[in-house]
Amino acid sequence: MSGKPRLTYLNGRGRMEPIRWLLAAAGVEFDEVYLETKEQYDKLIKDGFLLFQQVPLVEIDGMKMVQTRAIMSYIAGKYNLHGKDLKERALIDMYVEGIADLMQMILMFPFSPPDAKEKNLESIKERATNRYFPVFEKVLKQHGQDFLVGNKLSWADVQLMEAILAVEEKLPTVLSGFPQLQVFKNKMSNVPTIKKFLQPGSPRKPPPDAHYVETVLKVFKK
Questions:
Q1: Bridge partners of 9?
Q2: Considering the domain boundaries, does residue 150 fall inside one?
Q3: Three-state DSSP state, 148
Q4: Half-sphere exposure of 103 (CA within 13 A, CB side)
Q5: Whose CB among 1, 57, 110, 162 lies 3.0–4.6 Å from 8's, allowing a Cys bridge?
């Protein structure tokens, strides 16, 4: 096995995508193993690879890590994306928690029944424009810096960038009332490692389609 982290998940975004974003932002190459059948998933459980019988699974530095937030906290700490002191880390964690709440809605959207999609999309728009994006707009405006915490790229910036693009895919004009976030998005797009991740052919996954939803339901069926 190479020295690269190895990511085991489905061939789609889901709960692994923020991990891919963070590794890419840190300039870390990684290998991926894609689950396509329930048998593959059951074997991971049987072999004791999944502590809580859940993926994502990331093999890094001799560890088999599960739980998205624990994995990302480790990566952020390892690659200096978690603030310079305890106070900065607390701010970063707080922002990350908020972004994760918004991303949970995005994550579940493809699995909405057809008759609920419009309502759920409206909920995403309402939460993004009234609860979450105003917070980050205010933070950036108040301190007048390029990044959310300590004027240095952190885990929170990477997560916010992912969230902005994910919401924009569904609601292209969502940033129209947020000039600071528009500037932030442009600056983040030009961070060299992130710019590379946004290019075609990178490990970034496309928006989930019907095939992805079908595979998720097949692999994780009870």
A1: 34
A2: yes
A3: coil
A4: 24
A5: 57
DSSP-derived 3-state class of residue 15: coil
> How much is the pTM?
0.94
**In terms of domains, do 121 and 25 share one?**
no
Number of domains in the chain: 2
What's the pLDDT band for 22 if we cut at 50, 70, 90? very high
Average pLDDT, the chain: 94
Look at 3 and 65; give whichever has higher pLDDT: 65
Identify which has the larger pLDDT, 222 or 28. 28
CA–CA separation, 179 vs 183, rounded Å?
6
Helices and strands (H, E) in the chain, number of each type? 10, 4
Q: What mean pLDDT is predicted for residues 37-52?
A: 91
Spatial CA neighbour of 19 closest among 51, 58, 52, 54: 58
> Could you give the angle at the alpha carbon of 154 between the alpha carbons of 90 and 14, nearest 5°?
95
Residues 139 and 113 in one domain: yes
Q: Is the pLDDT of residue 32 over 60?
A: yes
Pairwise CA distance, residues 2 & 167, whole Å: 35
Q: Which helix (H) or strand (E) holds 34?
A: strand 31-34
Question: The tokens 């902005």 sit on which residue?
Answer: 164
Instruction: Specify if 131 maps to a domain.
Output: yes
